[in-house]
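Teaching assistant here, posting this on the class forum so everyone can see the example we discussed in section. The complex has two components, and the goal was to see what a joint structure prediction looks like when all of them are supplied at once.
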Amino acid sequence: MRGTPTQITLTVNGQPQTWTVGSRDMLLHVLREHKYFSVKQGCDTGDCGICTVLVDGEPVRSCMTRIVDVAGKSILTTEGLSAHGEIHPIQEAFIETGGAQCGFCTPGKIMTAKALLDKNPNPTVEEVREAMSGVLCRCTGYVRTNDAVLRAARKLQGEETGPLQPLRFHLHEGETVEDVELPEAYYRRNGDLDPLPPVVITPPDMPETTVVGAAETKVDARKLVLGRPVYAFDKYIDGMLYGALLTSPHAHARIIDIDTSAAEALPGVHAVLTYKNVPRVKHATGGQSPPQPPPYDQVMFDNKVRHVGDRVAAVAAETPELAKKALRLIKVEYEVLPHVIDPMEAMQPGAPVIHDEDDTVGIYDPERNIVHHIEAEVGDVDKAFAEADFIYEGEYYTPKQQHVHLEPHVTLTWWDENDRLVIYTSTQVPFHLRRMVAPLIGVEPKHIRVVKPRIGGGFGNKQEMILEDVCAMLTVRTGKPVRMEYSRTDEFYSSRSSHPNIVRYKVGVKGDKVTVAELYLVGDTGAYGTHGLTVQMVGGLKGLSLYNPPNARFISDVVYTNQPPTGAFRGYGATQAQYGFEVIMEEIAEQLGLDVVQFKGKNVLKVGETMYLAEKLGEGREGYPQDLTTSGMAECTRIGLEATDFYAKRKAYAKQTGRYRKGIGFANTMHGSGIAGLDMAAATIKMWDDGTFFLTIGATDIGTGSDTILGQIAAEVLGVPLEDVIVYSSDTDFTPYDTGAYASSTTYISGGAVRKAALKVRQQILDFAALMWELDSTEGLVLRDRKVIAPDGRELTLWDIGMTSTHQMEQRQIMATASHMSYVSPPPAAASFAEVTVDTWTGQVTVDRFFVAADIGRVINPVTAAGQVEGGVLQAMGFVMSEEMVFDKDGKLVNATIKDYHPYLVDDAPPIDVVFVETNEETGPFGAKSVAELAMDGAAPAIVSAVHNATGVWVRKLPLYPERVWRAIRGQS
Amino acid sequence: MPTQSPPRASSLTLTESGLLLLPGDAPLQTIVDADNAPALLQQVLRRSYSWQERNDVSIRRAALSPDRGPLWAAALMAWNASILFDSGETASYARYMHRDVRPQGRSTDILIPPEADALRWGVADVARTKLDAPIVSAVAVVEFDGDRVKAARVALTGVWKHTADLAQAPTQLAGQPLTPEAIDAVARAIAQEADPRPNFLGSIEYRRAMAEVLSRDALMQCLA
């Protein structure tokens, strides 16, 4: 309670309430204290809007509204929309459209929509965009949330709607994508902003499926739209302590001494941790398969800090306020050291040495702050350059991007009744965490259970041990449950970000064929090397494989600086490296007078070709041979060229001379599907006696919808609707192993495991049916529509089989477990098209439209897959246009708020249209590849290409701040 | 269940002095909802604040702490707003924010001239995205007396020590017809007058250049 205790009365969701509150308490916190958990906290500074509730019908930010100011007023939260058990049409619309991905912002969106539709029952799309712009979403790209509001308006006026359906084109024998005629709306000739359904184009040879491929609504959608307390953020335990971290105010300093006596003496403080009282166990925090890639350059607490926001101490106290007070009582004596922020300076002789400790092994050149020096080469690069007709060089820069997942890092730890340590946390890697935390806290892995509930976004930042080790140690020390959470400021300073890269390409061309390329990447890993090796190796592989010259050289220096550490970020090096290669390819085409689409199309990796560098560049180790087995790249390009009227616009725009100039750009991109030879997943399916199924998977649904698509895969094999498969995931005690949600692996690897397990169960069902019918074999038996059908027409329902197998005959449970891994990682591919307007007098670039045609193999669920693309594109658009963590000379962030950092808001976003061109990847479940990271890769090169078309200049440094564009137009660097 | 909120007062109060009263404690949305509020203020409020912010931030708070909505402060300055104090004093909003005057008492409400045929206005800004806070922005308001300018004010953000401030150069337009040539001259003078502070979004040179471009844009809209 903050301020003077005051009694107020108000109405919440129609119920009168009398509460004693603090005069400075905010509505958000009081509502959550009273268990209105639909009200989420994303920033606590009024920047994200996800805490929106209605006060007397008006949407307000509950984090910025004092509780005393709403005395006597009527509050409506998401819980109140469905108070009588009936789901509200707005909530229903969010389910139907896939408007709730991770769901953490969804209650705020729904409440804003409620206020809008109460006032304006029939809003235009423009009115929806304006009204909804106060609520940030990081998952959806806003296409489906806007769609949900427009659909809700129709529902409230009595229109019957069902789940959003894609527009499907099934090609017949002899037909190609050129025979597809998209409806006029997809051409967006009039600048319309309406959300359009995704398009799925299916080739003739694609086997038919029933549940796979269907636009099933997400299995977790209902609880998300109802605002149920399903996140770690919503978990509170009676008697728990609150953990808090003291972090460094200096970019680089040695801790001479630390005095915690005053903090420890404070009543209500149960533990204080510093480097003095925790074991010094060297480790890496990245959630990756063992042996974890080096260096092991971190300890839980150190006597040296290497970036502003680095850990100094932690406390556990009975209230959050007490924990903060205890932190203030800790006296730290620092010896401030010179620091270095720029990676190029960090490599110079005489630069401050960031890791001068003697117990970190595996740093390539500590004196020059070079963590890793990577070299890989195929062919004869020097000879090929010598023989090339033309050689082109280009340097590109990509920014340090923060994930801004709306649920912050939150961890709770406690000892359960069996003396096992439970870590309940918002993570992408529960199984890695279990193994990684154990040695740091002195508890054997077998005594640790990690549970991931729903998670409010991750994008790579939760593929990391961020709070779990400290929180667990506090529980070990105190014996009590402990909760820790990051603030939004902590997220910027003390979690992870993408790797900013300097990207240098040298490309040799013979005729119109790229024969040789060299890529030098400088990757700034910040203060610690987590993911530094692997991100750059992926950058090298994906960057150089897209056009796959037979002679290729990759060199990378991964460099320490006194910035907050980087880590995994959706795209994982490929986004940075492909941006450079795509742009230099267009620069080359322009200089050679070639059609850029044809030039790229001629050189792009094709089916049957070997990715030359794949064996040399795995993730942190050597890789495996990779041949491209499927690719819809050419078809995707064709569709995009047509839908955007690319050539006509390109030609027309190149002739503009006025202030405002339009441009259109194009990019090819490819990604991967899991990490070859490394990622592994398992799944267990059991059939209950009622003939329905329980699927347990280690796979981690971080809001992507993976629980849903894995359920669809199981349902397809088992001949049942999705509703007959209950999915439970990500609990190290109760679900099988899975490496986690990263590397675009879930559909391909975890889906493979589910399919295998389902096939085993299917065989058991058929075997049992044969037994019941006293048949010699299962030949001719068909499993579909919840029953087994014999060739003679007899039928057994799954209910019959379940009841009989469990209770009457043989009495065994039909169930199976299967594991899956792959030595190949088939690349999904996309053609991206961006249309922009450039104000040449100010340099401001506005993205008017984005179109993606993607080959992700079989589309398991077109709505969730489209959501991945739309959200990824918009996150990437932030990377291109606005998002960059910027540091001052002291190593402090100058834009550590959502407002100053500025991810895209609803009305910032252009319409994003998605077309899937299916291929049948035989190594994937039902032909699927992957989608999540592919979506991140196309925006940068496509937008930069469009700006070039508009202005004639190349802007090689991202983001495209107006001043950078303005200077480029004026020929200034 | 809560009922829908009653409609807010649809009109701002016209004071005896012929000014519109913006009640300090009322939320910003009051202005957006009012049928007699100047369209300029409505437009910049929509541009600067989310719907939620307009509901939970008071007019006074937004005016006195304009860091979250500098364009709104610029619009108030250009529209010649004044602040009313509980001592009964009033002060020019621009002068008060520039620390030129320190009236007694606590600020209560804001007074603005009503929309008039003789008033024309324009707004221009540059930002990373449509809804991002402007790097530089300009709001121009021109009062006409027949064909000639009676008074012209251009307030800018992102080019001063303060969040927003009025440029002096537009005063030279008084008594003249508003022409593209006159606007060019004033825009160039504003660029010279500007005293920008650089940050990662804009150097001094860029901000000064934008002061000229955007002032010209805003004033040109007053020609229409």
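For the discussion questions: Chain A touches chain B through 55 residues (CB under 8 Å). The first strand of chain A starts at residue 5 and ends at 12. Think about how each of these relates to the inputs above.
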